[in-house]
Automatic annotation (TrEMBL):
Stretches that traverse the bilayer: none
The keyword RNA-binding is annotated on this UniProt entry: no
GO terms, biological process: proteolysis
Keywords annotated in UniProt: Aminopeptidase, Hydrolase, Manganese, Protease
GO cellular component: cytoplasm
CDD domains: Peptidase_M17
Pfam families: Peptidase_M17, Peptidase_M17_N_1
Name the record gives this protein: Leucyl aminopeptidase family protein
């Protein structure tokens, strides 16, 4: 269940968000007992510091939460969220001299910190709740948190319980909840309907985990937005099998699909005036006698042929057919999201989501949205001189150029070859995983780029 704000402000305790600079003025506003106690403690308002304040009856009457000095704020997002697990259960209200942006970040961070993946646990610990701060659009923040939590859940579920069929069920549940329509092209119909790459990548899986293309639509007015998410529910690497250390996190290889579904929830739950389409090629890259092979040359929906130089570069293959379908009805904006390359992680690490954009205006809008949403992204280029790297000579395209350089860029260039009719196309090469617990972001599955894009959509699409 998605975290929500407290429904009642009755008996809510104050949580004072303070920095070293604002601490003296906040202490002056406390009751004499609370102020005297706070001054007697080694509390310096450092990031994540927490000090409980006593009331006249000796019970907890509030708390101080440290934000740290201003010059260190950019080093950590959702600083206030660090104290949430240490607060007593019950409603709290936010106090302190925070501007609108800081208040919004604190409110969202609280809800994101309240996320728990407890599907496989028999016990859960109740957490403190937050009264929606004044001036915050509570419904919007709850929708953003709900979308993020959906993404986290889908990524965190292990592959034995999150195969292509279960991913289809998750998309269908979302469609039913918001009155969207959904069609699915199953394994038996992929070739007949000209999705050869999706079929080829997924055909080695068992019948119960067969490949499919999920196609969901919502909204009847406004600009058109198409989201395409990589749904590789588990990736062995195929015949170019991954080593065990690299395969351990491959339940998250459907992180692109999880992220576009989370973004779709944000859009639908807030009633954003767009005509939304979500496409998810859902497969398992398995190993069997009919697995596709290195050296194979495969056809695509677009008519381009692809030489397979590595069966572990399968995500771009399934995305290619889905992008080609989307491009046949060009939307105002097309976005693909995928856990696509290790090269992106080497370049920017796990925190940043690199993205590619065909227009500077969309890239600029996204950069502004990323700051507002505390969802950092970084633009990488569609560097045209590298196009030759994805042209093998024997076929139109190479799915895994040799040499090991510019891997994220060449993957993005590969995908762009399948988007020829849509002028505005953005691609995100996300990681989808938080390797260490941080405020508002527990270790595990995480959405990247979705909140930034959601924040930027009004400017991008003139909503």
């Amino acid at each position: 269940m998605s975290p929500r704000f407290s429904e009642s402000a009755d008996n809510a305790l104050p949580l004072y968000a303070v920095s070293p600079a604002t601490l003296p003025s906040v202490l002056d506003r406390l009751t004499p007992i609370a102020a005297a106690f706070a001054r007697s403690q080694p509390f310096g308002a450092g990031p994540g510091e927490l000090l409980m304040l006593p009331g006249e009856d000796g019970k907890v009457a509030g708390a101080l939460a440290g934000l740290g000095p201003e010059n260190l704020r950019e080093r950590q997002r959702f600083t206030l969220a660090a104290v949430v697990p240490r607060l007593p259960e019950g409603p709290w209200r936010l106090e302190g001299d925070l501007d609108d942006a800081a208040t919004m970040e604190a409110a969202l961070g609280w809800l994101l910190e309240s996320y728990r993946f407890d599907r496989y646990r028999t016990q859960s610990v109740p957490l403190a709740s937050l009264v929606a701060p004044e001036g915050v659009d509570a419904a919007r923040v709850e929708a953003i948190a709900a979308g993020e939590c959906l993404t986290r859940d889908l990524i965190n579920i292990p592959a034995n319980d999150m195969g292509p069929a279960e991913l289809e069920s998750a998309a269908n549940a979302l469609a039913v909840e918001f009155g969207a329509t959904m069609t699915v092209t199953g394994a038996d119909d992929l070739l007949e309907n000209n999705f050869p790459l999706i079929h080829t990548v997924g055909r080695a899986a068992t019948e119960a985990r067969g490949p499919r293309l999920i196609d969901m639509s919502w909204g009847d007015s406004g600009p058109t937005l198409t989201l395409v998410g990589k749904g590789v529910c588990f990736d062995t690497g195929g015949l170019d099998i991954k080593p065990a250390a690299s395969m351990g996190l491959m339940k998250k290889d459907m992180g692109g699909a999880a992220t576009v579904l989370g973004l779709a929830r944000m859009i639908m739950q807030t009633g954003t005036k767009v005509r939304l389409r979500v496409l998810i090629p859902a497969v398992e890259n398995a190993i069997a006698s009919d697995a596709f092979r290195p050296g194979d040359i495969l056809p695509s929906r677009k008519g381009l042929t692809v030489e397979i130089n590595n069966t572990d570069a399968e995500g771009r293959l399934v995305l290619a057919d889905a992008l080609a379908l989307a491009d046949e009805t060009p939307p105002d904006l097309m976005v693909s999201m995928a856990t696509l390359t290790g090269a992106a992680r080497v370049a920017v690490g796990p925190d940043l989501a690199p993205f590619y954009a065909t227009t500077d205006s969309d890239a600029s809008a996204l950069a502004i949205g990323a700051v507002a949403a505390a969802d950092p992204v970084w633009r990488l280029p569609y560097h045209a001189p590298y196009e030759a790297m994805i042209e093998p000579g024997i076929a139109d395209l190479d799915n895994a150029p040799k040499g090991g350089m510019a891997g994220s860029i060449t993957a993005a260039l590969f995908l762009r070859r399948f988007v020829t009719e849509t002028p505005r196309y953005m691609h995100f090469d996300i990681y989808g995983w938080n390797p260490a617990t941080a405020p508002g972001r527990p270790k595990g599955g995480v959405g990247q780029g979705a909140r930034a894009l959601f924040e930027a959509l009004p400017q991008m699409l003139d909503l």
